[in-house]
Amino acid sequence: MAAPVLAVHQLSKRYGSQEALAGIDLEVQAGQLVGLLGPNGAGKSTLTKIACGLVRPSGGRVEVLGQPAGSPPARAALGYLAELFRFPGWCTAEELLRFHQRLVGSEGGGAERRELLELVDLGAAAGKRIEAMSKGMQQRLGVAQALIGSPRLLLLDEPTSALDPVGRRIVRELLEELRGREVAVLLNSHLLSEVELICDHVAIIARGRLVKAGTPAELAGPGAVEIETGSGVRTFEGAGRDDAPGLVADLVAAGERVYRVEVRHSSLEDVYLAAVGGQTG
Amino acid sequence: MSGGQLRSAAAVVGLSIREGVRRRVFLAVLVLTAGFLVLYGLGAHFAFRDVDEFAAGEPKILDAHAFTGATIFGMAMFATLFLGAVLAVFLTLGVVRGDAESGLLQPIVVRPIGRTTMLLARFGGAAAISAAYVVVVYFAAYAITEATGSWSPDHLLGPALALALGVAIIAALSLLASTLLSVTAQGIVVFMVFGAGLIAGLLAQIGNAIDSDSLHQIGRVASWALPFEGLYSAGLHALISGTSGLTGVVLQLGPFGGSEAAGPEMIAWSFAYLGGVLALAAFVFSRRDL
Questions:
Q1: Cα–Cα dist A216/B267, whole Å
Q2: Nearest to residue B112, comparing CAs of A87, A45, A106, A28?
């Protein structure tokens, strides 16, 4: 397997007596979309901030394309959108992107700015002042800003929290396109359905520790087969779709009359709730 | 500093200047400064006219015309320093902690520019604008004084440069405060330090007038601890350094008569102090979690 774009090794962070991260390991490969889930205060934003050099780790290490997080080459390789961000309100969308082009040394010029604004459906708002934009428009502009200079790694902290369903779909389609361009994406989100829909890999952290990781399918796993018979509803926990015909055959052979068969999957929400133990921040 | 960092620094300075223009900060500063200069012109005109009238025919023990010119121009210098300090503080307000708390800083410092370059760019922009501002206002006040009373200071350029360096030091102190304090606390602390420096300078003046070594010593220590005050005092001194006799003595003892010249040690110390404050600000900023 190729070297990961983002590699997190035994990462820990303490704020005074409070332990925000306690030995996290995580990797994001090129073209991979990794969803980071966890309750408020679990350490998701801290991990992201360490990866882009805003916060210094207490222990462990984070590398971006083999370079220490926070170093100039590491910062040059990433795009970042914070959960709580603000852009100068007097600036227009076009001016903001031009400013960030100069910061990263992008030579994309007007073509890059137009392409990114179109990608987040802000093509018609290029000359609009940011203070006159809705929160959702600002968030989409933030995503466009993070993509300036064609970063190899995109760190997005709750990028769809202020978006309406249409805005979410725009960002979702954009992320899927980025996957096609081999961009590595780490996505912090509370929206389980969204993560389940677009992420290749999911990591759930709680109280600063990685409690569950895998593909959405691996995490969701088999749930149960529920069969309604003449003598009542019977549930076969752990059984999957492939088990259903055999279970029905056995029941019929035993003289039962079968009225309904339902294969139930455990959703990512079930897995998440089981992993974090009902914890909320 | 690499070419990329220079380009990024220029982008940050450019953004700050555009913000000042777009938010009409510079327009407000220009209007208020024009108001100050008009008032100053009126004051200088009437002061020279009245003094020349009542001093006519009197024995010349004290050169009332020179005394008036030096006093009102010294006051103009004080006002220029104050306005320059306000501008320097405003341009550096909330640059680190304030902008970090509002989320403005993070999108910039994750870029390759780096924290130290970003900080130096903000300082460079604020110091250059504030320094240019005080030099322009100083020479405008000089032109008004010359036009209304035909009076010129003994040294013209030195005090202007002292003011420019003084406001650059205030900008650096304000930047350092922004790495440690919230916006409101930063503004309060910097203006209190500014006021304390000027009060210490006045104490030194009083110490000279009443021949108190202790007060004079307090003033000297303050001048070195807060060199913008030392530079300002030295600038006032340079205005009248060639004025002799009773007029020179009385002016030096007055509120706008600096008692000490800026020797090479004070100038070297001011630059070293500026570098030290910026280095400390960069160190604190580099250690801060954002």
A1: 67
A2: A106
Chain A interface, mutation test: which of B22, B111, B122, B183, most A Cβ atoms within 10 Å?
Answer: B111
| Cα–Cα–Cα angle for B133, B139, B140, rounded to 5 degrees | 85
First-residue to last-residue Cα distance in chain A: 36
Contact list in B for residue A84 (CB cut-off 8 A) is 103
Please, what is the Cα angle at B125 between A52 and A54, to 5 degrees?
10
Subunit contact A145:B10, Cβ cutoff 8 A: no
Instruction: Output the pTM of the full model.
Output: 0.84
Residues in chain B with CB shorter than 8 Å from the CB of A103 are 8, 11-12, 108, 111-113
What is this model's ipTM? 0.81
Q: pLDDT of chain A along its 281 residues, tens only? A: 678 999 999 999 999 888 999 999 999 999 999 999 998 888 999 999 999 999 999 999 999 999 999 999 999 999 999 988 999 999 999 999 999 999 999 999 999 999 999 999 999 999 999 999 999 999 999 999 999 999 999 999 988 888 888 888 888 888 998 988 899 999 998 888 888 888 999 999 988 999 889 888 788 766 788 899 988 899 888 787 888 899 999 999 999 899 999 887 767 777 788 788 766 65
Distance of residue B107 Cα from the nearest chain A Cα, in angstroms: 7
